[in-house]
Amino acid sequence: MPGMPTDGGGAIVPFRGEPGQGAPSPPPLRPIRHGVAPPIFRVYINWSSGNLLQVACLRPPNSEGCGGVEVAGSVVEVNLGSGGNGGAEVEEEIDEAEMRRIEYGSVPAFALLQSRKNALADAAAMSRMSSVPDYAEWWQYVLEYSKTIGNLLGNPDSPPAFMIEDPKTILKVREKPTSLRAAWELLEIFYVDKQLQSWLPERLVDWLADFDSLLSATESTVYSKLSNFQKKLINLQIVEDDPDYWNGLSAALSVGWLDIVVNMLRFHGSYQLDQMDNRETENGLVEAVAVLVSTMPRLRPNLPTGKLGQCCKTRPDFVKAWEKWRGQVTKLECSAFWIQCGHQKTRDGLKNLLHIMMGNIKELTASTSHWLELFASHFLYIRPFTVGFEGMHHLAQKCIQLKPSSSTTGLTGLVIGVLSENPEVVLAECTKHFGPWLVTHAMELLTADNDYADTMLHEERPNLGGISIEELHRLVYAQVLCSHSLTWQIAPTYLSSCLNQGLGLLEILLLKQPIQDNRLVLKTLEICRLYELDNISTNIMKVAGIYHWKHGRKGVGVYWFQQAHDKVRLDRIAQQLFEHIGKSVADDSFKQWEGLLELLGSDIGSAGGLEFLHRYRDFKRSLHQALDGRSGEAARQTVDFLIQLMRNPSTPQRFWLPLLHDSMELLNCKPSPLMNVAETNLLLNKLQELSLAKLRPDFSNNHLPSHALGSVRLALASNLARAILEDP
Amino acid sequence: MADSPSFRRHPLASSVDLVRWLPSSAASPFERLLAAAIYDPSSGPAASSIRLLPLSDPTSPLASLPLPSRATALRCSPSTLAAATSSGSLHLLPSSFNSDAAAAVPGGAAFHVGPVRGLDFGGEEWVTAGEDGRVHVVGGGGDGRLVARRVWDGKGMSGYEAARWASPAEFATGGAGCGVQWWDRRKGDGVAVQCNGIWGRGIVTGMVHSIDIHSSRKHICVVGGSSGTIFAWDLRWPQQPIPLSGVGLNGTAEPVCESEVWEVHFDTYTQSSDIISSASSKILPVMMCSEDGILAVVKQDERPLELLAEACAINSFDIDPQNPSDVVCALEWESIGVLTRDRDTLVEE
């Protein structure tokens, strides 16, 4: 054991580096507080759920010095999951509980989509002709699915309730956007939403408005410019003298945040009542720019409330409006009023805004920070008709050259992957940055209307063990769910959608669930019932039965064996119980068994060997009554029970004599015989069999008086005699 | 039907095993409070606790009482909140939720070994019934200490999952395979009457999860258990339990659910459609929740009224005793749901 402490921390695990490696890095050590005094005789290590490792430390059995006081062994759980595991950036913004909420919420949507997919596939198989309208229907389903999941990820448009808005607020206080949602929305825009395809550029502008703050944590963005200015604003006396004011304005305008621009223009000093008179022209120019900004034509069907611009649904409408608006912008730019504007910074700043609106590439490049912002400004002011991935990709390349970014986040990588029409890159970026949840659920978006992605993801690959990429990612995600004690219950939904290996893993998952808690067992069994895994549920019941039986909860153990229809174990249990019952059960001690006998229920068929106990109890009760009351009815019934017991093959042989001995008093005290000839003969035969068996070495002695056999025989013989006499 | 009853979900970011309404007290006259048994495996030793939640914002607890292990039963009396755990302990807390005043009976050989699922307050004492087959009555010892008296030790021959008082002297228990038992302490310790119950799917025995007894009809127990089984047991005819719902039971309409019925309560809000007959023989309406996410009101010989059909299990629910239109339920997916019923929605057809 090179280099390992054997006595210091009590660690006894030898470790050797990989052969061939020069200097193996020291293994990470985890001290365990097991509380077991050395010497430790044996250590068992076993994976529990997730990152938990169960370590059992045992002392040697009967070691001296134990004194019976110290612990002989203990099981500790070690959590190996702590510390950063270089995971996705999602984990930084969304805490575990929030992620679980998303995981739970996406289950119904995923299940619904899968069932619809199966229904469509079935329908297509039935009638091979009508697959085209089905396809149209399909993307509607995917869109619905995408919207449901998008809502789970948070709604950036919803303002927190009861906010009194300060008129000087530039950036609205909203729910913090997450990159998970940004990625989801991006995929939805490009892959699913067919209705809005022709307005794709404007949708990208909207997307950027929602998620600009996520583009870069270190480098400057339009968002960071504006929020910095916001902080500064409170202390500014004359806003228009500050260069950041004009920088912020041009930045916001270049990415199309028109409402923010108009709002900021109104901060201009010339709007103040005391200055209105001598800055009349200046104020007129500011207002004219504000009006132009707010009437900018936009190629989109509608605008959310609070956003500015005039919507044009069709291209001809847009072209007409655009030319008119551009004309107004140019006219204002050439206006003579600029000479009368005394404030230099205002004049330059406003002119700059006009140049942006005229689509001047130099101004646009200067006022944007990130390449995606420049990209969006191209759609707004230079090429509003850009369609098709090829053109967009080309433009994106150009923007990246102009504004190279040192740090790439998952989002920019995703945008490039989407634009280059490369589903492999998209998938890789999702896997790398957004974790298995997104990959699994976004797979449906990628394949919604993309034949290449569809084949790529669904093709069964020999190098993946015959499963498809889609199945692989679902299995990975299901493993993540399985590893947490609160989310394992939703893993079956995903496993059942994996045709090749899902069911096998599901069976393993179910069999590995803890069986200590009856409620949890019932939850596991419910899943077995849903997926019709009858043999698994039988196995679980048997395991649970053994656990409870061994821990002294005999009733619950028998219950589970009964549920599992486990005749073999019930018979074994019956043998054990007979040992306890012993020679003859006094009525008091029998009371203890009452509960168990009730458990066996009236249908003794299901109880296996325990059936005997039930009959025995009935016999005992009846005998008690018969001896007490001495009524003929009860005596006759007792004898019936006795005959049944003696006839039944499940009655153990060692109970034959005690049974007969118990009923001897009854046989003797009656003047008239209780049994007919045939019945008496049966008992005599059994008695004979017993006296033969007595000679065998494995015969168990019953602690009955030695003359018991003889006296029973006498009683039976006298009964026989009387019965023969009475026999007609 | 008018608008669907309004239902709100509140994510709690940890597993909610049980949930109860707390009676409004002098300490909180304006705020309606909930008590929830929370289990959060990520928080290490403090994984299990009872939390006091305001109805207005259940996500921010007002107070918390740590438990040694996962809670298995939770009940309120007018002055006390009681919780039993899977390690066999019982914890009593005054409704002021002052955790210094909490009292406990530790689990172990002297009390219960293993989960205690049956817990109820009978006006003077608490009854506890465990899976270890023991039944205890716990009361104050006069000097502020708790005294537990063993009523019965089944020595593991039967295991109890539910307990409910009928009167200060009588209570009912139920469990795995052993059906329902009626205990009358005036007739000595031990079971007075026994009923095996009726179970669906051709099985002879099932597991009882919950029992309720209506305060005005103390001779009738309503029982919920395995395979969607709900039946009523009338002590006057102890050998003839009355089926209310279940898979494959004769004489009932289609079952309201096919999975485990975790909890049943008499629903004082829903009125029987036939008031005259309900006064005599019919079983009063019963609300139930199940593993397959159903919250419904079941009435004898009538179609069940489904209130919720969730995608996940509903593990526990409670009807506000002071405002019975409101129902709170514990959902498997780490959240609680609050359902407010409108009087109009209950008038069917």
UniProtKB/TrEMBL annotation, chain A:
Organism of provenance: Setaria italica
MF GO annotations: structural constituent of nuclear pore
Regions annotated as coiled coil: none
Gene designation per UniProt: LOC101762730
Protein name: Nuclear pore complex protein Nup85
Region feature Disordered, mapped onto this chain: 1-31
Protein's job: Functions as a component of the nuclear pore complex (NPC).
InterPro entries assigned to the protein according to its UniProt record, in alphabetical order: Nucleoporin_Nup85
PANTHER family assigned to the protein according to its UniProt record, in alphabetical order: FROUNT PROTEIN-RELATED, NUCLEAR PORE COMPLEX PROTEIN NUP85
One of the Pfam families matching this protein, by short name: Nucleopor_Nup85
Swiss-Prot/TrEMBL GO biological process terms: mRNA export from nucleus; positive regulation of DNA-templated transcription; protein import into nucleus
Localisation per UniProt entry: Nucleus, Nuclear pore complex
Subunit structure: Component of the nuclear pore complex (NPC).
TrEMBL record, chain B:
Keyword Repeat: yes
Keywords: Nucleus, Repeat, WD repeat
UniProt-recorded name of the protein: Nuclear pore complex protein NUP43
InterPro entries according to UniProt: WD40/YVTN_repeat-like_dom_sf (IPR015943), WD40_repeat_dom_sf (IPR036322)
GO cellular component terms listed in the entry, alphabetical order: nuclear pore outer ring
Superkingdom, taxonomy of origin: Eukaryota
Cell compartment(s), UniProt: Nucleus
Natural source organism: Setaria viridis
